[in-house]
Amino acid sequence: MASRVALITGVGPGTGAALARRFSAGGYSVAMLARTRARLDSLEKEISGSRGFVCDVSDRSSIEQAVGQVQQDLGAPSVVIHNAVGGAFAGFQQLDPGVLRANFETNVMGLLHLAQLVAPAMIEAKSGAIVVTGNTSAFRGRPLFAGFAPTKAAQRILAESIARDLGPQGVHVAYVTIDAVIDLGWTRQMNPDAPDEFFIKPAAIADEVWHVAHQDRSSWSFNVEIRPFCEKW
């Protein structure tokens, strides 16, 4: 029997790579989408059953090409995780409108394009999962997040619309809000005095996404929040 296929966008050294490792460990063939070929080549060597596909999720034609190649080489994905993210930090008066537009293309339009391309096979199978990784910017706008928060809020609402459409057809859609600083080299440098428990581990995020993607259909979640035990909220 051919293995199940998980497609993950935004596969970088943190959450994306952790997701790829988790689904590989769970027996999936993993399609890793990212813009950098060298990064994908490195992860292919490390992660069993993984394949890298260069893709810019802000570009419809690039997504079409990547998804088509995944379907041809590995099969139709039964789990799709939109982890790619476009971000920026600036007040609204200083914000270049083009930056907001570019982030919208990655965070919102990328999700739309991806869902439109993978949903037909899931609907036919009457099963599958689409999971979006989000953050607290999807629920609140802070002064320096004018180029980011509006796109994540729109992404969450789009995911909810997709969930309400696909749920009755047997396809689970969920939005996982990561209310934390992810444990990465650059985030450690930005918070040099923070204790270990301040950070959320990419592997722990991946474990929760795995859980959400495999929930019994009698108890599906949509809005899922995860945070370290010491995080104020």
Short synopsis of the structure:
The chain has 7 helices and 9 strands; from the N terminus they run E-H-E-H-E-H-E-H-E-H-E-E-H-E-H-E. The protein has helices at residues 15-25, 37-46, 60-73, 97-125, 149-166, 185-190, 202-213; strands spanning 5-9, 29-34, 50-54, 79-82, 129-135, 172-178, 181-182, 199-200, 223-226.
Describe this structure in words.
There is one protein chain. This protein has a single domain, classed as Rossmann fold (3-Layer(aba) Sandwich). Helix 1 links the parallel strand 1 and strand 2 (29-34). The protein is globular and about 45 Å long. Helices cover 43% and strands 18% of the residues. The protein has 233 residues and is of the alpha/beta class. The chain has a 7-stranded parallel beta sheet, sandwiched between helices. A two-stranded parallel ribbon has the order 7-8. Helix 3 (60-73) runs parallel beside helix 4. The protein is built from 7 helices and 9 strands, in the order E-H-E-H-E-H-E-H-E-H-E-E-H-E-H-E. The protein has helices at residues 15-25, 37-46, 60-73, 97-125, 149-166, 185-190, 202-213; strands at 5-9, 29-34, 50-54, 79-82, 129-135, 172-178, 181-182, 199-200, 223-226.
